[in-house]
Amino acid sequence: MKYAILVLAVLAMNAFAGYALLDNSGGSGPGEFDQDAIQYWYHEEGDSRWIVWAGVYRGTWFDTQDFDPASTGFLIDQIEVWFHNAGISHSPDYMWDTDDFYSEVWNGDEWGPMTMLAQGIVTAIHQAPCFHNFDPPIAVEQNFWTIVNTEMSAGQWPSIYSDQTGYGGPMGPPECHSFFSDDMIVWEPWSEPYMGAGDYGDWWQTVRGEFSLALSSTTWGAVKALF
Length: 227
Hints:
Shape: globular
Distance between the termini: 44 Å
Number of domains: 1
Strand order of the largest sheet: 8-7-10-5-12-13
Radius of gyration: 18 Å
Order of helices and strands: EEEEEEHEEEEEEEEH
Helix content: under 10%
Low-confidence stretches: 1-12, 25-32, 167-172, 216-227
Largest sheet: 6 strands, antiparallel
């Protein structure tokens, strides 16, 4: 994936709600999609972006069949997340009190994460991709979550990027897949009324690896023939 320099100006902030709208007139985000990546966010130059620190937990719910209808799960090699520190770009009042967060992987459907499979400490970088790598890859079910857990911060930092496509982009269906929570029980969609009627956004979280596929009847027959 190729990256362009991000030059952003903060247009508006709502410190109590935990989000800010950014002007994107000066730059663009990641310029190419990887073939081995799945993500719901989408960005083109000129799109609105947000930075969000609402919720102690910010998660993306993935359904692998949105990307490959034949899939039954995914083998995760890497998670990529993008962050923005408004304390650098706008005001010291919004400076992160820590760069570190817990990157987590959970099995779970649209109702929320259910079973944690992995947790690691990752250091967020301002306007740059941050990675959580898995060796060996971690196997997840068809429905799973990637979560940014900010329990190490007193201010719910670091703040994550969001798009505002309103439709999920070319790699995802027209529904919200990004949520935030203070208790890991009640999950609010990152959508209206925060961005406007009918709109929603998705966190800049990308998962890389490969799909798990169900064995066809022909494949099962070949396997049985070996025994």
